[in-house]
Amino acid sequence: MKYNVISADSHINEPPGTWIDRVPAKFKDLAPRIVPTPDGGEGWKFPDEQPHSFGLVSAALQKGEVRGPERYIPAGLKFEDIARGSWDPKQHIEDMKKDGCDASILYFGVAASVYNIKDRDLRLACFRAFNDWLGEFCSYDPARLVGPPLLPVEEETIQDALDELYRNVRQWKIRSAQIPIFPWKRYHDRFYDPLWAAAQEMDLPLAFHRGLNRPFAFGAPNQGGPWMANQVMRDFSYSMPFADLVFGGVFDRFPNLKVVSAEGRTGWLIHFVQRADESLRRHGPWLKVKLDRLPSECVKHNLYSTFIEDRAGILLREMIGVDTQMWSSDYPHSDSTWPNSTKVIEEQFEGVPAEDKYKMIAGNAVRLYKLDS
Hints:
Layout: E1 6-11, E2 33-36, E3 42-45, E4 61-62, E5 65-66, H1 89-98, E6 103-107, H2 120-139, E7 145-146, H3 159-172, E8 177-180, H4 193-202, E9 206-209, H5 227-236, H6 239-247, H7 250-253, E10 259-262, H8 267-287, H9 295-302, E11 303-307, H10 311-315, H11 317-320, E12 325-327, H12 341-348, H13 354-368
């Protein structure tokens, strides 16, 4: 099919039976479930975590109404109040068409909380359950719906992640996979080398997306501070995993590994490429750090990044690579441009040559995810 516009970062919202219907019988009483919340809404209850009611995860479409920022309901919603297209693939495609979008790369709603489940067997069962639900969702129309499964990279051995990766390749013919933005063992560690090797061999991009709260991460609830301050800082937090990959020599050992910074925007990369190259030049010699390529070259070759509205990143695209930036709508979250994405794209890309514009709103995603094959 012909792709003119692709959202490289949209979202699902897991429906009530995602985990309960798919985990082994012995885990059904422990699996994540939707429960009533004190504010009159409903929310997901994960083991060892308090539920938060639905709200901004479906900000663009709540109670059957298209809403703008002035009318967002931040909390207190029930599952029946959120966008049907975030859990029903048929409706998702209709919502894409309304927005002028031909395909979506779909990231989790709340499933990142699976990483925080303490019981190993339950945790792994929940990874498989979510990935199977997402695989089922995308199987409705694989040419339009691409869902990267979550990989359990925090186990004692990386083999668990490899097993789940290969299982999803066989069963769901995946085009990408997700890894947590803030793992306990950071990505410069050679622990991950078998995963990088497998992803490079299959030419399968690995994506990290914010949403996994950790004590050292920007925006974690226990850090406090104004909500908007955390929202802004979280964009810069993508520099941590990518810097670990660059300066850990991962792209020297795996020069064709592709990673995706999902929902991090691209403006931070303008600073990153300058600061990282300078750091290598000034501090590499005395620290005995040598890389085969400059960090800025890794950004242009190995890092694919998504943005919603990022005029600075678009105008300075040559500094960070016009071939690796991908537009997204963030449907149906509070940053979403849905259902006005066509208008926003025209505003954001004013004055940009048609060839560069096409790459960033569709072409790069088609190539990365092999949507033309």
